[in-house]
Design a protein that fits this description.
Length: 420
């Protein structure tokens, strides 16, 4: 079968890499892809925008694409699944109505409250003055405010247009203390099955300091998500969410990603829902997946996930270290030549490309803030993390930056250490 993947990041490279391990996959096409997918055997890039629905559908129909997998949230929120389904294509990813669970934080909070899903107390404001009396922010895309002054400054920036039309209202919620856990689950709208829980490192600086980023590293499976906690997440979060979506007439097929905050006492609340595979969590989860990925995704699209046996996993652990451009998450340079990828892979690491492209000389160059995901796999976390760092030492490009403490909690045994 032929598969088309929409997106150009490390997540999409990892999806293509995993699919191509199966004898059932003839070819993977990435739209638009990156430098890594451009040179991977069995994969090709198609230079179309992720929101060029007409161009994507025309190519998919002409080339006999069996399945379209949508990576980023933006095309999902714009209705790519609805459009392609209308053309007769099978798509892994929720319809536009379902993608609201990520596209509208206010809509998602209302759904959680209606469904009785544990989440932070919150309120929605459309004016800065009212918002400033409401509390502290605590979620992705805005600010984790640890003081009232920080919260008020963030509110002013939002209503002054920092986030464009997305700043017409603000969701303010209580600041939760604990550790974040990412639970990505596959669903066909009836059955929902979680993948291995992962833990991301969002802060740019070592010791989890500095600005929030898209993620500077990750590992899986995170020990803080115990079997007991995952059993509760299944019944109190995932199944309630799917039932609530179904009650609204939304046929949700794809990934439902719950971002949790696990408190010191082991209790948890949902910070947010996302409507797609996480990045960089996907890059540490897929190397441990033993069940063929295409079997799971097709079962979701064809609404027969409940017929499959339990998802099979390899033993051990996986970890990635993100190599970023200097200056990220602020301004950074592009088009810097990257060397050492081959040496890193010879050392045992797997390198997923994120912000890369090929230049006219067919050299791999930087093309984004998060450039490469250097991945290690081992019998335990110590081996996996050591393998990732053994690989990244070979990677070179002007301005390269990476954290040198990825996995510090799990290595030091301080899984109980908490942060806002």
């Amino acid at each position: 079968m032929k598969v088309l993947i929409v997106g150009n990041g490390g997540r999409e490279h990892a999806l293509a890499w995993k699919l191509l391990q199966s004898e059932q996959i003839e070819q993977v096409v990435c739209v638009p892809g990156n430098g890594g997918t451009a040179i991977m055997e069995g994969c090709q890039n198609l230079p179309l925008a992720v929101d060029d629905f007409q161009g994507i559908s025309r190519y998919a129909l002409e080339d006999g694409i069996t399945l379209v997998i949508v990576g980023p949230e933006v095309p999902l929120a714009k209705g790519i699944t609805d459009y392609l389904q209308d053309k007769g294509l099978m798509v892994f990813g929720p319809v536009r109505a379902g993608a609201q669970i990520e596209a509208s934080k206010a809509w998602a909070k209302a759904l959680m409250q209606e469904a009785g899903i544990p989440t932070a107390r919150s309120a929605v404001f459309t004016e800065a003055a009212a918002a400033k009396s409401g509390g502290l922010a605590g979620g992705k895309g805005v600010t984790v405010a640890e003081t009232v002054a920080q919260a008020q400054s963030a509110i002013d920036a939002i209503f002054q247009g920092q986030f464009g039309s997305a700043g017409e209202f603000v969701v303010i919620e209580e600041c939760l203390i604990g550790q974040e856990v990412s639970v990505l689950a596959l669903t066909d709208g009836l059955t929902i099955r979680p993948l291995l829980p992962a833990q991301d490192h969002k802060r740019i600086g070592e010791g989890d300091t500095g600005e929030n980023t898209g993620g500077m590293g990750a590992y899986a499976p995170t020990p803080i998500a115990t079997p007991e906690l995952m059993a509760r997440v299944q019944t109190e979060v995932l199944e309630k969410a799917i039932a609530s979506l179904k009650s609204k007439g939304i046929d949700y097929r794809g990934v439902l990603y719950a971002g949790l905050m696990v408190a010191p006492n082991g209790d948890f609340k949902v910070l947010e829902f996302n409507c797609r595979f996480g990045d960089p969590e996907t890059q540490v989860i897929l190397p441990l997946l033993d069940t063929p990925l295409e079997e799971l995704l097709l079962a979701c699209v064809q609404q027969r996930l409940g017929e499959l046996p339990p998802i099979a996993w390899k033993t051990g652990a996986s970890a990635i270290v993100v190599a970023a451009s200097g200056g990220y998450p602020g301004e950074y340079e592009k088009n810097q030549v990257i060397t050492g990828i081959g040496e890193a892979e010879k050392a045992g690491a797997t390198v997923f490309h994120a912000g890369t492209k090929l230049n006219q000389q067919q050299q791999v160059v930087t093309d984004g803030g998060r450039v490469l995901n250097v991945t290690g796999i081992g019998a335990d976390f110590e081996q996996a993390i050591a393998q990732a760092y053994a690989g990244i030492k070979y990677i070179q490009f002007k301005g390269i930056y990476y954290r040198r403490d990825i996995g510090h909690r799990v290595l030091s045994g301080k899984q109980g250490e908490q942060h806002p």
